[in-house]
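In the lab's daily routine, each protein ends up as an entry in a very long ledger. A line of letters takes care of the sequence, but it says nothing directly about the fold. The three-dimensional part falls to structure tokens, numbers that each stand for a local backbone shape. The outcome of that step, for a single protein, is printed below.
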Amino acid sequence: MLTLKETPRPMGNMDLELEDRLRGKDREAFKEVYISYREEFLAFGRKYGVSRNELLDIYQEANIALYRNFAVKGKKLESGTVKTYLFGIGKFKIFDLLKERKRFKQADAVPEIPQIPDYHPEPSVEVRLLRKHFGSLGESCKKILKMFYYRGLAIAEIVEQGNYKDANTVKAQKSRCLKKLRESIKSRTGKNG
């Protein structure tokens, strides 16, 4: 999976000034960000096979999230730039769209019967237990565990993308969900650990 690696925080006055203006709810700053990066984001998103109209919607949503995170929550970037932050939000929104498309295509697809059986080793007992018991978790637990373990998002990214109050809320929720998963597996298998 392609990721936007954030580089050490450049101490450019323009970046810091832009962040301050965004936190100060400066409409012109948000307009500058929107206009400055729009075409570059559309070019970036095209490589994922997403239409221009879908990319425009995603870019709009990413800018709304940027506004909410800076103007409402007072976001301060520890690394990267406003641009990489915006593109990171947009990238995950593109991935969410592609996952949604795949889910609908799979639901509509007629299953093919393979002519030559492929070798697929059986999943281990642990993997089968995890799949079974993960499915019994609530949607909020599934969401946070997928974001952390499957998508590899950092706690700070989960706070932003999941609309959580703060990092402590995410950590506590993740901890509770893991505890539920462990207890579910223990109670149904009699295993300790």
Q: What stands out?
A: The radius of gyration is 21 Å. DSSP finds eight helices and no strands in the chain.
